[in-house]
Amino acid sequence: MKPRPFDYLRPDTVEEAVAALAAHGEAARVLAGGQSLMAMLNLRLIEPAVLIDIARVPELADIREMSGAIEIGAAVTQNRLMAWPGLAEKLPLLAAALPFVGHFQTRNKGTVCGSVAHADPSSEIPLVLAMLGGEVVLRSRRGTRTLLASAFQRGMLSTAREPDELITAVRFPVQRQRRVAFREVARRHGDFAIVAVAAVADGGRVRIGVGGVADRPATRDIAMDADLGDAVNALAWELEGYEDIHATARMRRDILRRIAPQVVDEALRCVA
Asked: Would you identify the CATH topology of the domain 7-53?
């Protein structure tokens, strides 16, 4: 199957992209890397009248450190971020998670912001953004607004972005915590996770993040003196899980119960 016909626009500036979104609204889709969008077009899961390609907009291609956060533009690919010299020092949890994102070939085209925009509950980058309390920057002709990750992703493939808004960047707070770990269970390496678990140990508590169980990433703080098994079990029941062709809700909960303590232990054993 192939996409239905659509018009193709390639703006040179953010202003031009925003103007195109203002003109076409819900009839338009934004193309950056296209790793999810092109598959959906081919299957006719979406049928836009206009495709707005932002991949070559220069001002969206930067990785910047600003006031305690790393801002990643909407045209920055996943492999480019992986090669950024400051990644392991500034964002160790993201450095641990990125090798699980797709494959080398898909990371060459797939963008960091595109993964956040797609809002798949099994996706690794939105999980890390939620874990670190990151932000999404949206721009329209009405102005610019910034949303916390927890407010941006509303559910499975659902976000708070308005039809006339362009995601221009995501911001990850610079991490002072060095004790981190990330692990996932997938059918094959590079597939979307069935369950993904992240952990950040900080002082007397550990924060865990879970992807692939609920309809969006979930995070919880657990005190070091708490019973970890009981805390993870309670979280598994709270998230309930969902069923698809890859796993039942029960299987997702069981995977979470098994791997979360291992990920926490790995984070605790890291040298601070």
From this structure: 3.30.43
